[in-house]
Amino acid sequence: MNSKSFDAVIVGAGIVGAACADEFARRGLRVAVVDRDVVGSGATAAGMGHIVAMDDSEAQFALTRYSQRLWQALRPELPPDVEYEQCGTIWVAADEQEMAEVRRKHEYYGRLGVPTTVLDAQVLQRLEPNLREGMTGGLLVPEDAVLYPPCAARFLMERAQKLGAQVQLGASVAQIGQARVRLSDGIEIAGEIIVNATGAWAAELTNGIQIKKRKGHLVITDRYPGFLRHQLVELGYLKSAHSVSNDSVAFNVQPRRTGQILIGSSRQYGAEHKEVDHDILRRMLLRAQEYMPALGPMSAVRTWTGFRAATRDRLPLIGPWPEDKSLFLATGHEGLGITTSLATARILVDGIMGATAEIPIEPYLPSRAGEEHVHA
Amino acid sequence: MNSDSQQRFDVLVIGGGPAGMAAAALAAESGSRVGMVDDNASAGGQIWRRALNGVETVEAARWSERLRSANVTTSFGKRVFDQPETGVLLAEGDDDLCELRYQNLVVATGARERFLPFPGWTLPNVMGAGGLQAMVKSGLPIRGKRVVVAGTGPLLLAVAAYLRKQGAEIRIICEQASWIRLAGFGASLWKHPAKVSQGLQLRKELASVPYATNSWPLAAHGGQRLESVTISRNGKTEVIPCDFLACGFHLVPNVELPLLLGCQISGGYVQVDDLQQTSIKGIFCAGEPTGIGGVELALVEGQIAGLAAAGESKRARSLFGERRKTQHFARLLDRTFRLRPELKDLSSAETIVCRCEDVPCSRLREHKSWRAAKLYTRCGMGPCQGRICGPATQFLFEWNPDSVRPPVLPARVESLASLAKSN
Ligand SMILES: Cc1cc2nc3c(=O)[nH]c(=O)nc-3n(C[C@H](O)[C@H](O)[C@H](O)COP(=O)(O)OP(=O)(O)OC[C@H]3O[C@@H](n4cnc5c(N)ncnc54)[C@H](O)[C@@H]3O)c2cc1C
Ligand SMILES: Cc1cc2nc3c(=O)[nH]c(=O)nc-3n(C[C@H](O)[C@H](O)[C@H](O)COP(=O)(O)OP(=O)(O)OC[C@H]3O[C@@H](n4cnc5c(N)ncnc54)[C@H](O)[C@@H]3O)c2cc1C
Fold this sequence. Notes:
Bound molecules: flavin-adenine dinucleotide
Shape of chain B: globular
Number of domains of chain B: 3
Oligomer: heterodimer
Radius of gyration of chain B: 21 Å
Strand content of chain A: 25-35%
Radius of gyration of chain A: 20 Å
């Protein structure tokens, strides 16, 4: 791999790097991918795999919804181990204020062509009988789905490899730029296009990227088939995802095909170690039990953590890096990178190939306003 | 949560097998305030919980008595699953949770059986040797049943003898080690008179039962349950009709808790100094996690660890000589019952390796590491947390296990949620 020159060298074999490799390869480019670990072992291994249309901003909605449609189109090709399941999301409203948000969301999604159903307390209780009684209602988004991210990343990478992509695993990258990728052992790989897809670690390779690590915890239970049917997220989640400074937790549970329940979620800045933080874990599980008391006696078999790549305006960084014309970014996906990986790859490669993208790339460009100046 | 409790000890012992009992007794006799926790309903560990033969029960009774008179606070049916902060362990019972605070800790978590996958090993009535013994002890009818005992290690003989006493018909004992290795083992045993007398006793009890060396199971057959076993016996294949297959490939130390605590592990065993202290000051380890060495070694190590944890290192030193003698036996065990490479080829492509997640051998072979296999196949991600398939894949593919995260044993969501931050 070292002697050749490539059209594109992608650093990072998470789901974003894998999707980019696949996209470049399908457009006929010669691609190489380098990762210090195995495919899908970073945040991709830690993520919940909720494929969700999110309306935090118009640009976020456009990217998540576009990507969701790309996942839907890919569905017939996905192998069983990707466990793609269109279980739908229910946004749970605990009070009237959150119910107002349900109606706003319903109207917004509907206007943009995404079907949703407003649920009153009774229907909600019938759909998810293990929710605590006394919820005000909810919003069902039936096209949302879940999948198993490491196998999804592996599927994309293998598809790219079948089209000739070269993948080098276990190789740590020390430096990128000026059409080169230099590994820690000194080997250099040349490529006209270099893509930094190293997720939460992207700023280590590209000076000046405004990304912060945002740590998350998850817990998985033993198998309880039928206990949960939809991905359930509290509407208070928005308050949690939006807080830029404080640690926060939110009720966010997901049914796995195995009958296991995945329990989230937490968000922390300034935590650099992978170790489980007992205090935030405790808060997260207390929150989950507030919504679903029946989770309490369930057997938890594992806990883990992962790092989201957070940007200041909560939108990813996709496109050319202004300071080096060979260098492109595909990072900053925070808690939505599994969902938005496919669309990220599509609009990045569209941009590079001069094709018209289905959604405008401008809101995600690294040069966008609000992202360019460096804060201490 | 009912009756949540908080307790404080000078010396806390995790595990109530021979090593833990000895550690707790000696630490308490030295005047320390001592607690001992075990996840079973009573003390004794793997060997003493079920009365096996006269010799061992006398010894067991002696240690139980010492434990009692030394005033050790015992707590049974509690699984230690996490250390939320230094000096605090959490243990979960069937309907309670306790917080255990300690100055010094003795980890005596023992060992479990190693299973190796082969076609049919997941059929009903194919069981761990120690597992079948335990089930018979708790009432499984075995009288008149035909049993094949297979695998490796001295445990096979003990189990066979026990089952026979309960009326089982032992068709054959298959030991994978070669007779040459076993002869060497036998010849070296003169240094361990207790082991010789145990061995002779077992031999007597097993008179007329065929004991085949160089032999191992190739496949278990049956529809709904086990009907027969194909074995490789000295190079030849033989089919033996039977009702049970009791199978165990020696023991694997339980090092998950020490790993969580941050103790250094090397070659699969917890590293300890002369005083049984691990790489972490104030945390001691005794018994099988430091090396599979049998009950005598577990007892000496336990005594040394208990004394050292109670600040009696001088008295601990007086036991070094005894420990040295029994350590020799541990090395002998390791050498004699090392698994032969042929056992790596027992699985066919379809043979399930991870029973929790139904992962067949073919799906594992394509991966280069435990981490990758785990990520893409979920091998080891089920409720046994890789305790069975981890050691198997370590032997089959030479994969190294991952780091350990809480909970080290499955725990209720509400227990994880009550991890109190010290205040
Ligand atoms: C707890 C949690 C829950 C989440 N839930 C969801 C969800 O439900 N839905 C959703 O859409 N998203 C979710 N996410 C977000 C999602 O997981 C991430 O956005 C996504 O995985 C990012 O993928 P990536 O490829 O950019 O990064 P990663 O998967 O982190 O990949 C980066 C890769 O770069 C490699 N790398 C880094 N530095 C170097 C170097 N110097 N040299 C070589 N290789 C390097 C790493 O080894 C890694 O493989 C969640 C995240 C967390 C933490
Ligand atoms: C299945 C089996 C059967 C055996 N049968 C025989 C036999 O018949 N004859 C013979 O000579 N030797 C037998 N042995 C070997 C015997 O166990 C050892 O020689 C010796 O007893 C080791 O003592 P120990 O104290 O180190 O460990 P153990 O006796 O294994 O005791 C460790 C104790 O710690 C407990 N424990 C572990 N982790 C936790 C936790 N996180 N929380 C709470 N408690 C915990 C365990 O449940 C166990 O009770 C057997 C071993 C096994 C695994």
